[in-house]
Amino acid sequence: LQFLYLIGTQTASMRRTAPRSPAPAASSRQKAPQAAPAEGRAASRVRAEPEGLKGAARGSPVRKAAKKTTAARAPVLSKGKAEKEAAAAKELADLKRAVKTLRAEAEEKEATYEARIENLAQEANARIEEYEAAVTALQVGLDERDGAIEGLEKALRETEEDRDARIAALERARDARYQEYEGFLADGERTRAELHNALVELKGNIRVFARVRPVLASEEKRRACTDRTDHYVFKEGTDHRGLDVVNVPAHPGVLGKKEDVKTLPFTFDKVFGPAATQQAVFDEISLLVQSALDGYKVCIFAYGQTGSGKTFTMEGPDPGRSSEVSGVIPRAVRQIFENFQWKTRQTGFKYRLFCSFLQIYNENIQDLLNSPDKYPPRGSLKHEIRNTDTESVITGLNEVEVVDEKTVFTLLQKANAYRRTAETKLNEESSRSHSVFIMKIKGWNEATRQEMSGQLNLVDLAGSERLSKSHAQGDRLKETQHINKSLACLGDVIAALGKNAAAVPFRQSKLTHILQPSMTNQSKVLMFVNVNPHPEHLSESLCSLRFASKVNAVEIGLAKRKVASKS
After folding, report:
1. Are 528 and 303 in contact (CB under 8 A)?
2. For residue 317, is pLDDT > 50?
3. Rounded to an integer, what distance in angstroms lies between the CA atom of residue 375 and that of residue 414?
4. Which pLDDT band holds residue 522 (cuts at 50, 70, 90)?
5. Using a CB cutoff of 8 Å and minimum separation of 24, what contacts does 418-425 make?
6. Is pTM, for the whole model, over 0.90?
7. Residue 204, pLDDT above cutoff 70
8. Does the pLDDT value for residue 32 go beyond 60?
């Protein structure tokens, strides 16, 4: 349609711009047209006059020549105009036919396109309806699937909850059964320990536990350059009571020949190897510690050469702080405070606890809860020992009433800071004094009017040293001499007790004088013998084990519980 519109526009423009040709002159055979009125003709002439004929007189030669020329041109101009008009008319007719043809084609195509568009619209609508129906069906299917999924999830949750409940019930049953079995085992072990303790108490023996510490990293370097023999074998099937010292080098015989190596067997109430933990060690003496709450006097002391692990066993690396490596003293304090409230509910006794801590340094008693400046050489404070029938009383010794284990740990830290230690060739931090921790337990039962008194003595002895090996001089020499002398006095006391001698030399040293009530039939006594496993110290370790065997054979009689009734 736009194309036809353009063609029509161009045709109209051509008509407006086409030059008008003069009418052709009539032939001689045609009748001349009727003359126009005079005025009209005159006007035509006036308008048709060329510019050069204006002002020329009629009949002049100029006008005559022009007239002749005009007359000669007239036939030619008429013929050319007619041809152009004929050509234009023909072209216009062709254009009209073309426009008509194009218009018919356009109308035909328009109809075709409209029909096709209508068909496409109908197909699209049908397709849309199909898609909408499919989407609706899918949505319905999804809704049904969501419902099914929710149902499955609910069923799964219920199944999981039921499963978890069953598992929890089975776990509770298993734990209950496990605890029951553990209780049976614990009861059996407790019964065994109680029967063994009862047997030992009936015999009145001093119980002895042997503990072999592990080899330290610093000792491994020296051990690599010397003897790497493992001399200690722990017997199987003896309830951890047997210890064999093997590959013991023989001494030169009478004829100068060396004997074969030999094995020395030892048997104690309990033997702990290098892998034994502090908790395992304390578990074996916990019943003994508990006896202090029952009104008994209990004494536990550690014996052995310097560097054998006595202080670690009794105190641990930090006696003022509770940890997995805490020793006997902090663990015993914790057990006393954990159990005395239970004992109060069970027996009706109300308890009061008093603590003191002292050391014996160069045969002088020093209160570790006092400042060291109060003792010689700076001070002049001295303590004396006064024995009664049931206990040793030390004059001027601080007794601090404690209400919780935190207070005791504070006292332990203070005492540990004041204790005498020094470096020797045999031990980097050697204890130069015997330490004695004393906890007195006093109970009162208002209903029965009974008074109970128990005492727990925990002793960390200084280690023995051979001057030939330690090469001690000056103060270290003096300390070593006093330590060895007091330990020798302890050996004399043990020997006299073993022979049931009438006179036992308790007063030969301050150590045995203080321990006198603990080594009679008034107390329950246990000794740790600590052993250094390094081959360099084999001879000293054998001396300690032999001494411990003698102690284990001593019978001090049945311990007595101190409970009195008052009106």
Report:
1. yes
2. yes
3. 16
4. low
5. 418/359, 418/366, 418/368, 418/370, 418/371, 418/372, 419/359, 419/368, 420/359, 420/361, 420/479, 422/475, 422/476, 422/479, 424/306, 424/465, 424/470, 424/472, 424/476, 425/469, 425/470, 425/471, 425/472
6. no
7. no
8. no
